Every structure is written in C-alpha cells, then in structure tokens.
C-alpha cells in the first residue's frame, strides 16, 4: 500500500504518491534556484505550476493518483533547468527509470507545428485577427486592416457586408481560443516548456520596464490612440446600422414598405398560417443581422463585453431557418400559379344609335381595406373579405362580320392545377351594361369572397359593324384596331377619339397622322406591327404581346400578365 499526498498545483487539486511528490518538489526547487536574481520570479513559478497542472490533467484523464512516471513525463516535456543554464550546476538527480531519457535531452528551444487559435491576450473583439496573424506570420494590424477593408467594400460596393460579418463570426465560432499556456505557445509554433515560460516572463518584464520609461515618447502610442478612436466610431456605426435593421424588421407589422402592407400576403398564400409565417420570417431576416450588428458594435465600444457563443450560434441558425422558410413558402406559393385557364364569352349589344360610346366606370365600394402600390396602379382591393382585381383598361376593336355590335369578354385565371384554376375562373364576376348608346364597363372584377389572387383578369374585344362608330372615353387607357389580316394599330392618351370604317379599313377618324394605307401597319416580316408617332411607340405581335411607350407611362402585356410603369404627372380617371 503506497502513501499518497493531496496537493494544490496551478489552481487544481491532485493526489500524488509520496515518491512522485518528492520528485516534483525537487524539480520545482531546482527551478527556483535557477531563477535566483531573475526579475518576476514569482510570476514565472506560477506559470510553471500552471503548465505542470495542465500536463498532469492531460496525462491522468481517468486516473486519480499521480505516480513517478507521470512526473517523469512532465519533466521530459518541460525540460530541466540545467539545460538552459551555462554557468550554474545543479545537484538534481533523476530516478533510474528516467536517467536514460535525461541523457537524450539537449539544450535549445524546440519548435512544434503552428496551430490556429484566437489570441485572448491581443484582441479588440475576439482575438481572431491576432490569431490569424500569428498563424500566417503577419502583423496583427495588417490582418485587422484587411477585415476593415472588406467591411468597407461591403458598405460602399456590391460585396455583401452581411457575408463579411457572417464569415467573421463563423470563424470565431469554429476557431478555439488559446486558453492554456500550451495553446498560446502552439500559436507561435513553440514548445510549451520551462524555457519558454522563463523567456516570456523576461520579455514581459522588459516591455513593462521600457514602457514605464518611455510612455508617450513613440509613434506607437499615438497610433493606439487613433486606433481606439476609430474602433469606437466603427462601434457606433455598427450599433446604428443594427438598430435600423431591427426597426425595419419590426415595421413589417406596423407600416408599409412601398405601400405594401402586411396583409398583402394574405391574398397570395392559401392558408392563413402561411401568411403569418412568411411575415415572421421576413421580419427575422433584418432583425437577426441587426442584433448581431448591435452586439458587435457594443463589443467595439466596450471590449470587455462578451458575446455569448450559444446566442451567436442560435442567431445564425435561426437566420438560415428563416431564409429557407421564405424560400420554401415562395416555391409552394408559386405552384399556385402553375396552370392557367381561360373562358371566352360573346355577347351581342343592342345599339340603336350610329355611335357607341365606351367607357370604364369606377364603382363606389365604400372604404377599401387597403390599397397596393401607388395611386394609379392597384392590382386589387379588399372589402368585406371580397377580392376585387383591377382591369386592364384596353379596348381591342375589330370589324364585325355582321351588322351587329358584339362584345367578346375573355376571362383568365391561374391555379395549382386545372381544377383549381377553373374554380378561380368560375368565381370571377364582371359586370357591364348598355345604357342607350353607352357601353359601360366596370373597372374592377370580383374574384369572390376569401379568395386568393391568382392573376384573375378579363380582356375585351369589341366587334363593330361598318355602319357604326365607336367613341372612346378618357377612362380607357389604350385602344387597338386589329385589321382582318391581323395588323394592329395602337392608340394611347384616349380623349373621346372616334373610330370607324373609312371605306378601306377601321381607323381613328379624328386623329392626326392617320393613314389609309393598310401596309403602314405591317413590318418587314408581316408578323408584328409597329406604330411610331409623336404620341409614342406602339408595338404588338400576332400572339397578342404588346409594348406601348408614351410621355406618361410604359405599358407591357401578354396573354396573361400586364406591367404598367408610370413616370408622368398624370391623374387617374378612376
């Protein structure tokens, strides 16, 4: 049965057998003797004991008692004091089991392979830059300058600031901090032995002595002051940017961006919970980076502030979850537009006068729940849970094959599949009426109660006999005359123009620069038509795609979609 002794070493408790205890005590006494007359001897001894404790903890693992073999291992790693002395002789004697190993030790400063750590002793935020500098053999300020330049590129150019910050915090998460003396030595590729402890202590003492004699005498001090000021300013900017992101994310629930309120999503997704989820995820996208920016700014301003690693990881993970959530919901919602259907109706108009007046009439539906986009272009309105969709106020004029006027209405809608699209189409309600010599069209269609927006639309073709005229009200945005050979003429800035048959074709009878030559509307391919005049440029293909550009707006449409870009100071007539 061996006798054991309980000791405290480097802040840790160990149980040591008696032989190992005496061996360790002699080793520490020899170290003290070798340091006689050295400045800061107590700090060196403390570091040595700390390093010995680290080695013993690594060595013991699940063992409870330190034996002489463990002490021999510690001495072989740390080195004997006499290895680093020139003039002094020591009486230190080793046990026979380790005497052969001692003969193989040679004086010097062994090196090890460099390892990447964050340097906690030379840090502004996390010590990442100084750790990278040690590993790459660069000055820490050079690495900090590189990160600063990347950050500025993110602010003033197309490089993503968020990606730069994300890369930084990702490296902080996965690059460990140099906690122990061995870790700190591994950053420089040096062995964590007694000589290194002694050398570091002497350098620290020398640096402290010099700095005490030369405070404020060198350019480095000025540079440090300027650096601290710059870091403080950067911290303020990060806090301001972060708060703006946070308030922007929160504002999704209270105000509109580009006049698009939060309820906007309700009419694009099928389920109410999806609408709430996409709003939540949309808010998290700016809020989470904003929170990280605020924490980073506080870290710049107050270096002692610590960012909890779990909070950091959770924030980044949650941001990616929100991003993927929006993508998944977006793909799911897009499937709701995958299929399209249309229905065509032809109605004969009882017109007794020789001139038919056509106009769109705005229906007074009371106070709408909200509006979308700007004052002139509104995709839809909602009142009492009923969805009202705006109509493309374009009238297409064609020659009637008989002596009666006919109105062709094409209904269109989309859906996730054919059945869904047909249900959306069947829910469309559109009204018009003939009042004497007036054809009055609603400027909205109803898509039904509790409906989702699935590109519901109606388009009009008015077939006019040769013995009738058509007068278009200013409420109509565009007019098209399609000849029998499918050539098309475009008209915008409608203001009570009169259209009729001039003996050759249907034309605008009171428009300037109107031509009787049907070929004026043909292009060199005989497929598409183009009309260029002082009123603008108008282009249309046989497929029905059209582009109109005038002084007030750009109008682009195809069989399904319509895009209007307003840039003139004109007032809607709705």
TrEMBL record:
Coiled coil: 38-65
Transmembrane segments: 149-175, 231-257, 277-298, 310-332
Domain Phage shock protein PspC N-terminal: 114-178
Domain PspC-related transmembrane region: 204-337
GO cellular component: plasma membrane
Pfam name, any one: Toast-rack_PspC-Cterm
Entry keyword Oxidoreductase: no
Sequence segments annotated as region (Disordered): 90-115
Localization in the cell: Cell membrane
UniProt entry keywords in alphabetical sequence: Cell membrane, Coiled coil, Membrane, Transmembrane, Transmembrane helix
PspC-related ToastRack domain sequence ranges: 394-513
Protein origin, superkingdom: Bacteria
Keyword flag Coiled coil: yes
Membrane topology: Single-pass membrane protein
PANTHER family for this protein: PHAGE SHOCK PROTEIN C
Protein name: Phage shock protein C, PspC
């Amino acid at each position: 049965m061996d006798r054991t002794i309980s000791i405290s070493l480097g802040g840790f408790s160990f149980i040591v057998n008696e032989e190992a205890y005496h061996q360790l005590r002699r080793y520490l006494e020899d170290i003290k003797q070798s340091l006689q007359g050295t400045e800061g001897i107590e700090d060196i001894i403390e570091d040595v004991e700390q390093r010995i404790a680290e080695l013993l903890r690594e060595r013991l693992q699940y063992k409870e008692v330190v034996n002489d073999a463990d002490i021999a291992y510690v001495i072989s790693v740390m080195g004997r004091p006499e290895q680093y002395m020139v003039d002094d002789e020591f009486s230190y004697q080793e046990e026979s089991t380790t005497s052969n190993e001692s003969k193989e030790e040679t004086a010097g400063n062994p090196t090890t392979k460099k390892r990447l750590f964050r340097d906690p002793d030379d840090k502004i935020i996390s010590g990442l830059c100084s750790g990278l500098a040690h590993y790459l053999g660069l000055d820490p300020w050079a690495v900090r300058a590189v990160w600063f330049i990347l950050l500025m590129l993110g602010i003033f150019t197309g490089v993503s600031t968020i990606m730069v910050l994300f890369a930084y915090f990702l490296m902080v998460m996965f690059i460990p901090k140099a906690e122990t003396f061995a870790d700190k030595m591994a950053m420089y590729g040096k062995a964590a032995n007694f000589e290194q402890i002694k050398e570091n202590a002497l350098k620290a003492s020398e640096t402290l002595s010099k700095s005490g004699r030369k405070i404020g005498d060198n350019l480095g001090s000025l540079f440090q002051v300027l650096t601290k000021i710059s870091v403080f300013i950067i911290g303020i900017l990060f806090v301001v940017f972060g708060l703006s992101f946070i308030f922007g994310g929160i504002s999704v629930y209270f105000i509109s961006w580009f006049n698009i309120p939060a309820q906007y999503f309700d009419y694009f997704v099928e389920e109410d919970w999806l609408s709430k989820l996409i709003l939540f995820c949309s808010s998290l996208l700016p809020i989470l980076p904003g929170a990280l920016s605020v924490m980073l700014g506080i870290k710049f301003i107050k270096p002692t502030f610590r960012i909890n690693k779990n909070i950091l990881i959770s924030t980044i993970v949650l941001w990616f979850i929100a991003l993927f959530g929006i993508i998944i919901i977006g793909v799911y919602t897009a499937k709701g537009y995958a299929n399209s259907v249309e229905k065509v109706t032809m109605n004969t108009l009882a017109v007794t006068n020789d001139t038919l007046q056509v106009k769109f009439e705005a229906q007074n539906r009371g106070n709408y729940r909200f509006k979308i986009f700007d004052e002139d272009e509104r995709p839809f309105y909602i009142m009492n849970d009923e969805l009202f969709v705006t109509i493309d106020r374009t009238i297409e004029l064609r020659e009637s094959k008989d002596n009666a006027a006919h109105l062709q209405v094409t209904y269109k809608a989309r859906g996730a599949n054919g059945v869904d699209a047909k249900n959306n189409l069947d829910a469309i309600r559109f009204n018009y009426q003939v009042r004497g010599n007036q054809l009055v069209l609603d400027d909205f269609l109803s898509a039904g109660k509790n409906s989702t927006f699935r590109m519901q639309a109606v388009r009009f073709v008015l077939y006019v006999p040769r013995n009738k005229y058509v007068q278009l009200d200013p409420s109509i945005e565009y007019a098209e005359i399609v000849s029998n050979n499918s050539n098309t003429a475009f008209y915008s800035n409608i203001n009570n123009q009169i259209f009729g048959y001039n003996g050759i074709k249907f034309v605008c009878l009171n428009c300037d620069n109107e031509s009787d030559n049907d070929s004026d509307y043909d292009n060199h391919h005989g497929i598409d038509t183009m009309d260029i005049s002082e009123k603008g440029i108008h282009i249309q293909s046989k497929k029905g795609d059209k582009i109109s550009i005038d002084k007030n707006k750009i109008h682009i449409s195809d069989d399904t979609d319509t895009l209007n870009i307003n840039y003139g100071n004109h007032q809607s007539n709705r």
